[in-house]
Amino acid sequence: MILTRAKSSDRRKKTAGAAADAAKAIDFGPLATWVGFNLRMAQASSFQAFSKLSQDVGENPGRFATLMLIAKNPGISQTALSRANGRDKSSLTPVLEDLVRRGLIQRQRMHNDKRTYRLKLTPAGEKTLAKLIGAARRHEENLDRVIGARERTRFLATLRRIAADLG
Description:
Blueprint: H1 2-25, H2 35-54, H3 64-72, E1 76-77, H4 78-85, H5 89-101, E2 105-109, E3 117-121, H6 123-147, H7 149-166
């Protein structure tokens, strides 16, 4: 049995090494120095790392911002949430329907406008969000380790400028 584990471990190491070698062999051309491409790659890596940390919660990490925005803005409309979350209303609706179905949020129609919904977390949603916040804090610590505490403020300012000027 110990031999089987060692062989399995060796296979994983060889596979990981081969993947790293294959990535080194790729010529990225101008993409290697383009901010947009590197920003996209960094976002993908960050999302994957957060996904690993949030697995124990049993919640998709993409739901984190949605739950947080609803928690911090009880009664927020779906339209305001879609703007704040940077999501199109049509892609946000199935997310909200899923959160309602699982009992994490409540959606209530406005009395004066039956087309508008107001959103708020349920107690189950608050518990889920608390767990996700724990995972997010660990993720932020990892990002701070990579970015550096001194660079964090400047890095965030740059990201906000990109979002504001190009968004």
